[in-house]
Write a structure and sequence with these properties.
Layout lengths: L1 H16 L29 H8 L9 E10 L4 E9 L5 E7 L8 E7 L2 H5 L7 H15 L2 E6 L2 H4 L2 H12 L4 H7 L10 H9 L4 E5 L3 H9 L3 E6 L10 H11 L12
Parallel strand pairs: 4-5, 4-6, 6-7
Antiparallel strand pairs: 1-2, 2-3, 3-5
Length: 263
Amino acid sequence: MVLSFVSVALVLTVLQVLHLNPVRLTSIMPLNYMIPNANASSGSVSLKEETIATCPSSGEGLSVEKVAVADLPTEWGDFKIAGYRSLNSDEEFVALYKGELRPEVPTLVRIHSQCLTGDVFASTKCDCGRQLHRTLEMIQQEGRGAIVYQQQEGRGIGIVNKIRAYALQDQGADTVEANELLGLAVDSREYKQCAEILYDLGLCQVRVISNNPLKIKALEEAGLKIVERVSIEVEAQESAARYLRTKKEKLGHLLELKTESQI
């Protein structure tokens, strides 16, 4: 205790000699500096503390709610599956995740828009199902990560309208033109609640598995810290070539357009 008093007196003396006001001392310190105390092992705020302080709250103000969590063994490994409901619409979401999800750890994530034809029926008109499976494989290899499965089929137009768009594509329209011919939005998806689900899972800093710059921008605007974009290109069959070219040229997706015939 005597030593503490001596130390404080010494510091004040030095400050007076240097003509520094102790009250103003914080103004010349780095913003992340914290004066040490007897129980502190470091003189600076930890990355974890800093991240938690700046990350939106996962417990309050969310417009989604977690309904249930269960185990889900898959071909790629064991995952957790959680069901979420929107509090302001009838939309439902599914999250698949594994490992310890912490706000200060940059973590692999993907927002995957539902594609019944590709994810379930293994359609070769798109690369959606293969992207989903590749993402599961990547997260399994990493040991940590999350997928938010968003039920906005056909970039938000629904499965029946998507089949109507397919019929127009059979007649020569591309995926963008087909939506326009039907009087539908080219892409009406929203990602704010997907970001909220990632917050609720405990994440703040993310490595986004996506080729869609608009999706990445939306997640960043929702408050997530995008540490890295992780490219995901899978071998696509020739029947998907036009679809992928349209996504690159008209929707701005970051693709190299490599099909199985070119490999």
